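To the team - NAP complex, inputs and output below.
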Amino acid sequence: MAQQVDAVEQPVLVVKSGGEAAFAEWQACFAVHSPGLTLRHWDDPELRLEAVTYAVLWDPTPGRLAQMPNLRLVFGSGAGVDNVVADPDYPRHIPLVRTSIPEATDRMGEYCCWAALSLLKDARRMAIAQGERRWDYFEPPFRACERTVGIMGLGNMGERSAIMLQGLGFPTIGWSRTRKAVPGVESHAGAAELDAFLARTDILICLLPATAETHNIIGAANLAKLPRGAGYIGAGRGMQQDLDAILAALDSGQLSGAVLDVFEPEPLPAEHPLWAHPKAIVTAHVASLPSRMERVAFIAATIAGFERGAPLPNLFDHARGY
Ligand code: NAP
Ligand code: GLV
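Output:
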C-alpha cells in the first residue's frame, strides 16, 4: 500500500517511442527539461503499471494503457496520434496531446517546399539521368508562380507549409473541414467545396489526419478532378492514398509526378512498383521529425502547465477523430 502512495506522489512517465535504443536519449532530454520526473521504458520488466502518471507513445501495445489506473495525461510522440487511438481500449477519459509543435511544422514546411520544387524542376528525371551518367538537357515549363499548390488539411502542418510555399512564389489554396483565414491562402471548406479546390490545384499536398472520412481520399475519382499533369505530394498518412490509383494516374499522365512520404503498410514493400517508377520520389516517412530535445521541451512544459491547471494544447478530439 505504502508503495502505491509513493508512486502516485512521484510522477512516473513511461516512454514507448523510437525503440529501446532511443530511451537513453529521452532520459537525457527529460533530465534537462524536467529533472524531477522518473522515466521508465514501456517494456521495462520492473515497470509497475499503477505507478505510471504520464505516457509518451508511438504505436503502444493495445490494452496496456487501460491497465494504468493512475494515468493522467498521454502524449503522442508525433503530430498524428492515429497509432495511439488504434488501441480499442484507449482510456478516452485521459486527455491525449499531439506533439504538433512549431519545430515539426517548420520541418513539414521544408519538406513540402522541397517536394514542390522537386516536382516543378522534375528532380526525379534529373536523378535518373545522373545515375546513368547521361546529359539530359530539358526545359522545365513552369515557374513557381504559375503552379497553384492546393493543401488538403490547413491545420498546424498545412498552414505553416502554405506560408513557406508562398515564400517560394507558389500561389496557395487550402481545403479543410472548417473555413480558415490564413493570409494569402484561399480557403475551401467541406465536402461541397472539394471539387472546386481540386480543379484549381496544380500541385496537391495531402496533410490530413487519418480518419474514417479521409480513408482513400487520394483515389481515382479525386485524382481525375485535378488538372491534367498535376503533381501530388503525400505526407499525411498512407491510409489516405490508393496507390494503385496513383500509379495509374502517373502512367496515364493525369499526374506528372508524385512525392510520397507515407504508405500503408510501412515500410513500402521492396517489390512495390513505386520504388522504381520514373515519375515518383519515395521517402521513408521522414517529412517532419522534430528532435527528441524539441519534443521533450514541449512535453515537459505541457506537463508543468497541466499540473498548474493550465489548458492543454493540441488536444485530440475523439468525436472528430483528430
Ligand atoms: P491538425 O492541426 O489537426 O490539422 C488537420 C487539418 O485537417 C485541419 O485543417 C482539419 O480541418 C483538416 N481536416 C480533418 N478532417 C478533414 C476532413 N474530413 N475534410 C477536410 N479537412 C479535414 O493536424 P496537423 O498537426 O496539421 O497534422 C496533420 C497530419 O499530418 C497528422 O495527423 C499526420 O497524419 C500528418 N503528419 C505527417 C508527418 C510525416 O512525417 N509524414 C509528420 C507530422 C504529421 P479543420 O481545421 O477545419 O479542423
Ligand atoms: C509523423 O508522422 C507524425 O505524425 O508526427
